[in-house]
Design a protein that fits this description.
- The structure is a single chain.
- This protein is mainly alpha-helical.
- It has two domains: 105 residues, no CATH class; 122 residues, no CATH class.
- It is built from 15 helices and no strands.
- The two termini are 31 Å apart.
- About 5% of the residues have low confidence.
- The structure holds zinc ion (ZN) (2 copies).
- One zinc ion binds next to helix 11.
- The site of one zinc ion has 4 residues, from helix 2.
- Its cofactor is Fe(2+).
- This is Fatty acid desaturase domain-containing protein.
- Belongs to the fatty acid desaturase type 1 family.
- Keywords: Fatty acid biosynthesis, Fatty acid metabolism, Iron, Lipid biosynthesis, Lipid metabolism, Membrane, Oxidoreductase, Transmembrane, Transmembrane helix.
């Protein structure tokens, strides 16, 4: 898994996880590395071009990383990332078409590295941008992240983001796994071959009580007429739930900046 993660070229597992944990803990505040309250450009790509907000550094140090620090594979990749990245993310994907299909090095470099990398990165970044800005909040209307079938389509299942932030420990990162959720199937495959274990998932009761307690009413089964009527749709409809195709505006209350107080 560390090998496939290196192929994706999205920084080391250690750095990725630290930023991700920080993102969940302080979502959409100044301590969130890709704070979506700073606008679409910033949370999509701008955060990687910009100096980190001092809170990202300060609060980042408080994130518990002991589990990954105890994993030799993660620490090995972190230490040698500068060597592993060019070999696995550039050289290997460029070499395969040259060796096996007789492509030229230039063609292979532009398609297998540049084109692949650009498409893949934008798909992932849409989770931080689109899936925090445009969509419904059937599980928790107090969280800024939304459900977006379009982002799930682009990112192979990572766009059911209101659910993911409501139940971050659920391996599926979505209530359902049958539409645009290839990531969940891949994790289950790894479980079968013994590389993933103790997968946690929210029970239907837990999900139902959360939907009824904090949802915005747009849930495909447990939503309300009023909640669904508030949703405006665009583009082709999601096969299961038309309310996932939305440009629903976030309630003003959750768009307001949240004050942070340092804690452990
Ligand atoms: Zn997450
Ligand atoms: Zn998020």
């Amino acid at each position: 898994m560390v090998i496939t993660q290196t192929l994706a070229g999205q920084n080391s597992v250690y750095t990725w996880c630290r930023d991700h944990r920080l993102h969940h803990r302080y979502s959409d505040t100044d301590a969130d590395p890709h704070n979506s309250k700073r606008g679409f450009f910033f949370c999509h790509i701008g955060w990687l071009m910009h100096k980190k907000h001092p809170y990202v550094k300060e609060f980042g140090k408080m994130i518990n990383m002991s589990d990954l620090q105890g994993d030799w594979m993660v620490m090995f990749q972190k230490k040698y990332y500068i060597v592993l990245y060019p070999i696995l993310a550039i050289l290997l994907p460029v070499w395969v078409p040259v060796y096996y299909f007789g492509e030229t090095w230039w063609n292979s470099l532009f398609v297998s590295f540049f084109a692949r990398y650009v498409c893949q990165l934008h798909g992932t970044w849409c989770v931080n941008s689109l899936a925090h800005l445009y969509g419904t909040r059937p599980y928790d209307k107090n969280l800024q992240p939304v459900e977006s079938w379009f982002v799930s389509f682009l990112s192979l299942g990572e766009g059911w983001h209101n659910y993911h932030h409501a139940f971050p420990w659920d391996y599926k990162a979505a209530e359902l796994t049958m539409h645009f959720n290839l990531s969940a199937s891949i994790i289950r495959f790894f479980e079968r071959i013994g590389l993933a274990y103790e997968l946690k998932s929210a029970s239907t009761d837990i999900v139902a009580s959360r939907v009824l307690r904090t949802g915005d009413g747009s849930h495909y089964k447990m939503g309300t007429e009023k909640g669904r009527a508030a949703v405006t749709t665009w583009g082709p409809l999601h096969p299961l739930n038309p309310t996932y195709n939305t440009t629903l505006k976030a309630p003003d209350a959750i768009l307001k900046p949240r004050e942070l107080t340092p804690c452990s």
